[in-house]
Each structure stands twice: as C-alpha cells, then as structure tokens.
Amino acid sequence: MARIYLKAEESGERIDALLARSVPELTRSAAQRLIESGAVTRLGAPLKKNERTKPGDEFAVDLPDAPEETELTAQDIPLDVVFEDSDVIVVNKPRGMVVHPAPGHPDGTLVNALMYRCGESLSGIGGEKRPGIVHRIDKDTSGLIIAAKNDFAHLALSAQLQDRSLSRVYEAVACGEFREDGGTVDAAIGRSFKDRKRMAVNGAAARSAVTHWEVLARYRGYTHIRCRLETGRTHQIRVHMAHIGHPLLGDMVYGRGRAEKGLEGQCLHARELKFIHPRTHERVRLTTELPEYFTEVLARLGPIFS
To answer: What is the pTM of this model?
Structure first.
C-alpha cells in the first residue's frame, strides 16, 4: 500500500472528483470506494465522498497495491457441498482455504474450486476475480459460505444480506471467562487508523456492526460461545470479541498474537446459514458439525465449568 498526498488548488470541487482527476489509474467510482473505506483523510480524519474542497486543503490517500496479474483457472479441488441447485451452492469451507484469488494466494482458492465444479454457471456480479461470491469468510475461519450461480440469485442474496434475512451463526472459542450468559456488542467498525490492514471499533468510515453472543460452555480461562451476526462487517466477530476483552483463541491479529492450544489462527466456525431461496422463496436452513480442529481444541481445554 502506497500513501500519496494531494493539495486542493480551488474551492468547491468534490473530493472524489479531485482524487479521480489527480490519480490517472482511478475511476470516479473507484475514488468513491476509497473514500468510503476511510483511505482518504484530511488532518487525520476520514471524509465523505461528497465533501468539497477549500483552497490549501491537504489530503492523505492510501492507495492499495496493484493486484497481481493472475489467470483465474478452474482447479479440481474437493469441496464439501452442503446444498446445491441451479441457482445457489453452499459449501462447508475448510480452515486454511482462501475464498478468492488475491496477492499471495493466486490459486487453490474456493473460487478456483467452484469454477471447476460449476463451469460457467457462476454469477459475474462479484467481478472477474470473484465469480459467484456473495459474502466472504476469512482464510482461517471454517464453515458455511454461499455462492450464486447466476446474477438473478446473486442480486437476491445480496439484498438479503442488506435486509438481514440471510442469517449466519458462528461458534468460537474466546479467551477469558464470561460473567454473563449472553449479550450484544453494538459497536461500529471501520479501518484502523494505525494499521490499514486491520479493522477497529470506531475506525475510519466506521459502519454499524451488531453481534449477539451466548455462552455454550465455560472452561478454565476460555469460553465456547455462539455468535449471531446482525450485520456483516469485515472481521466483525474477531473485532467485537477483542473489543469486549475476549479475543478469539489463536487470533494472530486481534488476539494474543501467538499459537494457543495447538492452534494458530482464530478458532471460529460458521455453523449455521439461513436464507430465502431466490427462486422458490422457501426458507432454507443449513447446519454443519464442528470440524475436527475445533473439537480437538475443546478437548484440550479440559473439564467444563458450570
């Protein structure tokens, strides 16, 4: 990621227009996305895309690294398919699998596997590097993820993400012992002002984020919890649990930053997915068992405490 600085010479120009005019590789819409993500600041404060300049205004702009040029190819990678028809496919993603190609992960991703299984039957709304992808889960998070096989289904599922009729429930192991049996974290999440690769509560361009949690089992020094997302911000559960003093076990970014109980990377599994089928309008509820790595961690935690 590179940082550049811009200075406004005139008054009244929109920030997104100034950015698109000053950086040739940026379109107006790309400039707006950068602003909305909090990557453009004035005196350290994020801006709105429709704000206008004043003479002498100085702006810092964090430009993302150019994506690696990779040819997206179909790869015969086994998938644990939980549900599939002509519109959608739901996969139980293993821990360690990246969802779509990105710098450092040009292949071996869920997208490569979906291309092999589904052929040309993947929606194009996510872009040429993310065909079919409606939502993402992190590399070290396991569990259910839904993909669309056509644009009709993609638009319908995206709308359900927005109106929250697409429901996702996770299970996790958090550090520390919860006093309450359940609760809600309602704290907006945006890009960290200190590290652009991290998210943070009340970060740049923070957006509403709500996570409901409940205790499933208590161990000495750890707690097995269930989390239901009301919103779907990047790293939401990981950020929210760290915010309330209970980072996820093994989380190398928001947690203790070290391997614990034989696990490096967060102990987090997307266990349940509910949605309205885009064509039949029937309610679909899918669940999956906890994966082996998760149950092995629980076994290492010792006896359950009431």
So the answer is: 0.78
